Amino acid sequence: MATPALPNPSPLLDDPLPPEPKPRREPKVRDPDAREPPAAAQDPEEDAPEEPEPEQDEGPEPPPLPTDAIEPTPSGAEVEDGDDTSSVSSVSSAAAATDAAAATGGKTERPFPAATDLLHISYNQDYGCFAAGTKTGFRIYNCDPFREIFRRDLGPSPTAVPGEEAAQALHQPAVAGGGGGGIGVVEMLFRCNILALVGGGDAPHYPPNKVMIWDDHQSRCIGELSFKSPVRGVRLRRDRIVVVLENKIFVYNFADLKLVQQIETAPNPKGLCSVSQQPGSIVLVCPGAQKGQIRVEHYGARKTKFINAHASRVACFALSQDGRLIATASTKGTLVRIFNAAEGNLLQEVRRGADRAEIYSLAFSNNLQYLAVSSDKGTIHVFNLKINVGLTTNDKPLPAPDADVPHMSPSFSFIKGVLPKYFHSEWSVAQFRLHEGEQYIVAFGHEKNTVAVVGMDGSFYRCQFDPVNGGEMQQLECHNFLKPSDQP
């Protein structure tokens, strides 16, 4: 089937990056991480159940005619999915947090209730904005200065006008099984007018097995990709659309929505996938076919690299924007490993804490000097990266990541197997303490030594760390991006 081309993405929020040539197209288509050394236990292996392989059925559909362009006010980022396969969320709603966990480090008690209508949060590619998918639509926010840029309330279709007439009244394509306003995935393309949307929640606006390409200048969908199983995540580049299903990943050209590659993965309910963002050669990271393995696709060099990163299943990973470094964490969540993407060798290993934790997000700073980590323990960690990024491909690999005992002198060899790796770990240089049990995703801000944190409780924090002295970060601002009137 011939696939119509998509319209050119155009600046929506004063995109600071130079535009790349775009395809022309017709308009269709406690301290919980306290360093108290426990007994060193080996990672238990967590075998993932075999899942049926989902099939894909693509086919863009022509949307209605375009409406007037929208001019938004200028401004001046996965939790394990549940067993319910009828809904989609790349960052699903966090478990109810314990109110007994009062903030430390000079912070006050929680300033707002949990945002129960929030389905998804994610940063854009340069971490200057973040998007929120809710039960009634989606919203876009600027990080610095913080402000809401715009929102689209999709809501239920008018009851007085059924079917296609209702869709036309809303400037939306008619969607079978829709009718609600829930958006479970919203992925930005830097700051331009093109976004990818997937329905979610109890009343999804679009089917959870479809990726809708939204043009905000037209306030409508201009294309779609359909699948036979729920979409777990979407990643965008200026030239690629990456769709993540439970056991497969599909890579499409942005220009014409033609399929470029299909990748088989281990069960991936969290929709894990990262793609480099610099122009030119593309690097894509996804789960491999085996437990604890990640797969790295180097499209420019036309090669595939497999890295056995952990003995347990991979729970989270991040790729630097230039595609050179990969950070990974397992389901145990105590260690984070940094690999050279090109050669697959281990460059550094850092310790988040001693207790098992679920890692929610990992993020590299733009200069590749720092790595930030968030987890269900409620503490944001910043680690110093001791990597010569100019020579990463020639750096000497560290010992094999699954070695159980650290290197030690012969005089201490009698305690081999007793002294845990804990005592030899590299710890974070800075920490920011929030509410244990809440789900936060972290990114480095554009201002030097700053970190931005967005929470599934509707919170936004911006803080600053001291790269020399380290310790507790200074909170610069805190906002409730879902105002009390927005709470259900």
TrEMBL record:
GO terms for molecular function: phosphatidylinositol-3,5-bisphosphate binding; phosphatidylinositol-3-phosphate binding; protein-macromolecule adaptor activity. The gene is LOC123063263. This is WD repeat domain phosphoinositide-interacting protein 3. Its main location: membrane. Keywords: Repeat, WD repeat. The lineage of its organism: Eukaryota, Viridiplantae, Streptophyta, Embryophyta, Tracheophyta. Belongs to the WD repeat PROPPIN family. Transmembrane segments: none annotated. It comes from Triticum aestivum. It holds the Pfam family PROPPIN. Residues 21-36 have a biased composition (Basic and acidic residues). GO terms for cellular component: cytosol; phagophore assembly site membrane. The keyword Oxidoreductase does not apply. It is found in: Preautophagosomal structure membrane. PANTHER family: WD-REPEAT PROTEIN INTERACTING WITH PHOSPHOINOSIDES WIPI -RELATED. Residues 1-20 have a biased composition (Pro residues). Residues 1-93 are annotated as: Disordered. GO terms for biological process: autophagy of mitochondrion; glycophagy; nucleophagy; pexophagy; protein localization to phagophore assembly site. It is a peripheral membrane protein. Residues 43-60 have a biased composition (Acidic residues).
